[in-house]
Amino acid sequence: MIEVQHLYKSFEDKEVLKDISITFEDGKTNLIIGQSGSGKTVLMKNLVGLLEPTKGQVLYDGRDFVSMSKREKVLMRREMGMIFQSAALFDSLTVLENVMFPLDMFSQMTLRERQRRALDCLSRVNLVGAEKKYPGEISGGMQKRVAIARAIALNPKYLFCDEPNSGLDPKTSLVIDELLHSLTREFNMTTIINTHDMNSVMGIGENVLFIYEGRKEWQGVSSEIMDSTNKRLTDFIFASDLLKEMRQAVTTARQ
Fold first, then answer.
1. Nearest to 159 by CA among 169, 146, 149
2. Distance (Å, rounded) from C-alpha 122 to C-alpha 116?
3. CA 234 remoteness from chain centre
4. Could you report how far apart the first and last alpha carbons of the chain are, in Å?
5. Which residues of the chain have pLDDT under 50?
6. pLDDT in the model for residue 170
7. Using CA of residue 237, residue 241, residue 242, residue 244, what is the dihedral sign?
């Protein structure tokens, strides 16, 4: 569980995050949504320590990450997995070597144990047989699955995903969503996902945080969005005509 308490972040005289408090729960897919420039990426960077909050706390199962020493933060990051907007794979390494990379860096396993663990992770994301290929030889969706396998290699307690469906077609995006959701449940991780993908929000949004101009505007589960009376939220979610029609259809069906 990750608890954010009264978090502020300013850059010189510009306040980007303003008094954000929220709990991200274990075993659930926690989604952060908001317009470009709303502060969601800045929030993610504060959570993982890439930025230092101006004020407030970030508690990892009761441990205050903000006040930790550099050494303590390094140790803490070993409990984190990260999936970047681009898969961020090493082009010169094979799929297997990419997944082994964090194991090589941080584990005390033997080479055989690291290889076995990496193959297990590739199996979990349905990439058996791709281990000898290079990133340039596989599709974008497969690259994202390799990134997921690498992120779970060290069996993290906390998984951070920055726009994991960026650049993917809708069908592949659905595969990635279902994979992240099932892995979150299986390993009881605290998974936090920054996303613009409304299909992800409605499909796997078990705990959704909507940020508006740096503030926590709304929090709830995806099933509550259709009935929300928060105009800023509904204007954001139902910006497209198709989603407006879907909402109208649901409202009409209930009458």
1. 149
2. 10
3. 22
4. 39
5. 240-242
6. 87
7. positive
User: How far is CA 59 from each of CA 4, 19, 27, 69, rounded to the nearest angstrom?
Assistant: 6, 15, 17, 14
- CB < 8 Å & 24+ apart, contacts of 37-41: 38/211, 38/212, 38/213, 38/214, 39/9, 39/211, 39/213, 39/214, 40/194, 40/211, 41/162, 41/194
Q: pTM, whole model, 2 decimals?
A: 0.86
User: Residue 222 gets which letter from DSSP?
Assistant: G
Q: What is the DSSP letter of 136?
A: G
Name the packing angle between helices 95-106 and 140-151 (round to 10°).
20
Taking the C-alpha atoms of residue 107 and residue 193, their distance in angstroms, rounded to an integer, is: 26
- Pull the structure tokens for residue 82: 């990260």
- Segment 64-110, tens digit of pLDDT: 999 999 999 988 988 999 888 777 899 999 999 999 999 998 888 99
The confidence score (pLDDT) of residue 199 equals 87
Cβ atoms 118, 96 nearer than 8 A: yes
pLDDT value at residue 253: 58
In angstroms, the CA 66 to CA 83 distance is: 22
127's CB contacts (< 8 A; 6+ apart) are 95, 142, 145, 146, 149
Q: Which amino acid is at 79?
A: E
Please give the pLDDT value at position 241. Answer: 47
Q: Residue 114: its pLDDT value, please?
A: 95
The size of the chain, in residues, is 255
